[in-house]
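Deliverable D4.2, example record:
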Amino acid sequence: QVQLVESGGGLVQAGGSLRLSCVASGIGFGRNVMGWYRQAPGKQRELVATISTGGITNYADSVKGRFTISRDNPKNTVYLQMNSLKPEDTAVYYCNILLTVLAREYWGQGTQVTVSS
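Output generated by the structure prediction step:
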């Protein structure tokens, strides 16, 4: 059974930094894409960043230059380093994994990030 467990959310002042972590279990072997999405109150869930098994990254324009996604493949862990945070970054951040071969995706339970002005 695939499980994603996130950590690292919290409250931070504008301009501050946070680092999110997500550990995946039960994913077996094979290529996958891990990523972070976020959902603010009253808005749809949106892509933040993704990273493939091979290290190819993709970022939303709104976070380019401020956020960095990385992964540790042996540990099945993905990280999101968030710098220069803005109040508009406030949202619940969800970890996601797409198992490429099986074409299945899974979500974590979400972690709250709140940026005060």
